[in-house]
Known about the structure:
The complex is a heterodimer of chains A (243) and B (353).
Chain A: E1 2-6, H1 10-21, E2 27-32, H2 35-44, E3 49-53, H3 61-68, E4 76-81, H4 85-94, E5 98-100, H5 105-114, H6 120-131, E6 138-143, E7 146-151, E8 155-161, E9 164-169, E10 172-176, H7 180-186, E11 191-195, E12 198-201, E13 205-211, E14 214-219, E15 225-228, H8 233-241
Parallel strand pairs in A: 1-2, 1-3, 3-4, 4-5
Antiparallel strand pairs in A: 6-7, 8-9, 8-12, 9-10, 11-12, 13-14, 14-15
Chain B: H1 24-45, H2 52-79, H3 86-115, H4 124-170, H5 173-189, H6 191-209, E1 214-216, H7 217-235, E2 239-244, E3 253-255, H8 259-271, E4 278-286, E5 290-298, H9 305-325, E6 331-337, E7 340-348
Parallel strand pairs in B: 2-4
Antiparallel strand pairs in B: 1-3, 4-5, 5-7, 6-7
Amino acid sequence: MKILIVDDEKPARDRLARMVGELDSHELVGEAVNGLEALGLAQSLEPDIVLMDIRMPGMDGIEAARHIAKLDEPPAVIFTTAFSDHALEAFETHAVDYLLKPVKQERLQAALDATIRPTRAQTTHSEDVLSELEPRQHICARVRGSLVLVPIENIYYFHAEQKYVTVRHVEGEVLIEDALKALETEFGDRFYRIHRNALVSLARLAGMHSENDGHQVSFREIDDVLEVSRRHLPGVRKIIKNL
Amino acid sequence: MPDNTEKSITGPENTTYLPNFCNGDAFLRLLLVIELIAIVFALVSYDGSSSLFVHIALISVVMLWVGLATAAILCLATRHNWLGDHLRTTIIAISVTLLMTLLASFLSLGFGDLLNYGPTARDIGFTLMRNLAIALILIGLALRYFYLHYESELRLQVQAQARLQALQARIRPHFLFNSMNTIASLTHDQPDLAEHAIENLSDLFRASLAAEASISLQQELELTRSYIDLEALRLGDRLEINWRLPAEEPLLHLPALTLQPLVENAIYHGIEPLSDGGAIDIVIDASDANIEISISNPLISVQNADQRKGNQMALENIRERLALAFDGGASMDIFEIESRYTVKLTIPTTEAG
């Protein structure tokens, strides 16, 4: 199996690298120092297993694992952590594999040997588990086979159209498969539902005006407008007033 | 009169200050105490007109009956949660005792007539009043004793809890296990560094376990350096420390681990979240009256609620210990200026207690 090690601390990476090196059936293909780099290497090196630290600067291990789960053939992710009780509780209840640092050689071997590439159902499941822990800092979209990350603060709105959700952000648009309902739950403190099919960023909302029979909201910097449904009108009015 | 404000501290199984009368040991002890009191009473009231043993036996029967019946009823009451708060417990215990005394007195009067022993009918009123008075005094003493005992147990429990919390506040499990992992890694390739790391970790733990010791500023700085050395192994060049100390190190005693946790906080909240790391400034200024110790780190905007809470707890802990050590003469201020987070301690130069 091809192994990718992700940890921000060099001694921690060195130790895991040496331990993996001592195993015959596994091969170390790369090391990353944070979640972002891990995401890049997970695509370019195509590892079978990612040994992922949880607490890292930039993008943490939990968020990186959630994005990795969206790859076409995602590797299995085994978390490594020194101590992080609230994440561990979630892992215990959902049987996501994790190793406690300092990791024992036998435990590492057992975890690696037991790992088979997860099926689509398993990655969806683990994505659900991880989503309970904390909102992501990025939205991850697949554009022509590779992953594109959009920081949450750069997003104007989410707009649902049939099967996909359009994410309008500072540099353009991407399509994602997330459900609007789930996005609303995850980012409820930064985005507001204005219609059955749209969530808008509170930070980037400019105002509301009426046109014909309906109401529309506009955004700072861009010309896009979105329709406000009658049901959500009172709530939107209140928010516009407090802008 | 006992109050019930401390009730919430104990677990649900021990909300009453009464001992658990359902427990066999407590029951036996009660039996023994009652019997001893009965003997005292028998000796005091013995007039030599009958057998001493019969006299003791008769008084014992009455008193044991009252005591054990009361204990049994209180046991039942505890089991069914009838006791409620301390006031209610006290009222119930006294009422039950008096009731049982009344009952026992009547029974003993009846038997006394049968056996032709004890008070005659005209003494009944006096006997009843006397028995009730004795019972009231005894149950009063017993309840007072139970309450004091309960209070001291409670205090011990609270102290133990506080000590544990203080310990946990001072040693972050996160730090402990990451250090262990670093040492495990170094053991292989750089055994000298690993050895040094273990020495530093030992110093820190020794200081953590010495409860509320007061140490010199020099020793505290030593501990802080041990800590920084450990973190430097882990974080590499992501961690930069700028020291600015006065030419002459001031004479000062302060509670052990006052400074180190502040640096730990600075690293945990200010350096670790940064991919490229950052600098921590440790500045000590000495004037005639005060010594000011400032520790600052880069301000991180994105922090979740848990992290803020953890930071607050550590700071509160240090604030409390400083307040205790310097009788409120020391202060802790927090500034967020120019994208840096600074904690400043101001400590009077007069010796710590």
